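Entry:
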Amino acid sequence: MREERRPRVCEDRVLRKIFGPKRASVTSQWRKLYREELNELCLELNIFLVIKSRRKMWAGHLARMGRG
């Protein structure tokens, strides 16, 4: 569980820096964006799924290298 949390926290931190704060419509105060809002803005898979898929691709590459 900890391995999944650290990359997500880092990804959220970077995306918050990129997109900046958002002004709340009701209170007119600035606030941080929530994870769901960040996901809507960037329309990408979460970082853990990307890392997992790349590990699988790398494992397949290594398996094919061993044959030759």
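The two ends are 37 Å apart (CA to CA).
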